[in-house]
Amino acid sequence: MSNRLINWFRYASPQTFYPLAGKLIPWFWTLAAIFGVAGLTVGFLLAPIDEQQGEGYRIIFLHVPAAWMSMFIYLVMAFWAATGLAFNTRLSGMMASALAPTGALFAFLSLWTGALWGKPMWGTWWVWDARLTSELILLFLYIGFIALQAAIDDPRRADKAGAILALVGVVNIPIIYFSVKWWNTLHQGASVSLTRSPSMATMMLWGMLLCTLACWMYSIAIALMRVRMIMLERERHTDWVHALLIDPE
Amino acid sequence: MHWNSLAEFLAMGRHGLYVWGSFIVMALLMLAEPILLRHGRKQLIARLRRQYSAEISDSRRIAKRDSDFHGNPGRSRN
Questions:
Q1: Do B34 and A54 touch (CB under 8 A)?
Q2: Does residue B21 belong to the interface with chain A, where contact is any CB pair within 8 Å?
Q3: What's A34's domain CATH number?
Q4: Does residue B77 sit within a domain?
Q5: Hey, is the C-beta of A107 within 8 angstroms of any chain B C-beta?
Q6: Does the predicted model carry a pTM greater than 0.90?
Q7: ipTM score of the complex?
Q8: Taking Cα atoms as reference points, which of A126, A127, A123 lies closest to residue A115?
């Protein structure tokens, strides 16, 4: 019976993962588009006005997904980094490198949309408050990870160095998440939490969740696209990449 | 539908600049990333193919030189 079980380690090899990722990418793009259209329709066309913030609150449908993804991608990146250090699998380091630029993109977007939300609501683009500062540090962690890897020629050494940076930086994630609880901040508290029912209208909640799913699917599609490029580049001297590029199909 | 007119939708109750400023930047960056990746992928594949064909013609040249040298004693420099 054991040969009927899926051998997950088989997919840890770039040679088998490459075509699988290629097949999955269009599906994730389709899902991202569907969730994106649905989320934006609910958030921008159907959701009611907010009592306190007026129409400006609609930035929430962009800001919250971007901020969540920036933290979540970092956790996934740190997970791959740890796996790479523990098992020395080639794929792990490639996955971590593939995620970093998209994580940085979402960290930037969460700061950008946050600034544009802060200006009309708080009267300022930026404050050195715990939530905002720790999110800025997250952006710097992503940039540091990318720069560190780019500075080291040997990819396996670059993976190791990056993995250590990623794992040290992971301490920042709970700081971002709980900052609104631990310190007095200008940033509002969590709108959605696992422990209590959400403090917002159902329509708003749905809009936010659908937009988050769209960003999630987008991130998976992009990470798979990027990891395939990293695979080709790093494995260019192997027979499988040779065979793939010299006689396609 | 929450809106009565397009103008009202675009105005976002005096917050149009902030809402659309967020939306446009996010949309542009999330469109640019896959487009740049596709472009980078095409370039990478073209570069690797060039490298391979250079390696193949190199190895053929070396093989030919070796066979000229060893395979044809009459024409070699001895």
A1: no
A2: yes
A3: 1.20.120
A4: no
A5: no
A6: no
A7: 0.87
A8: A126
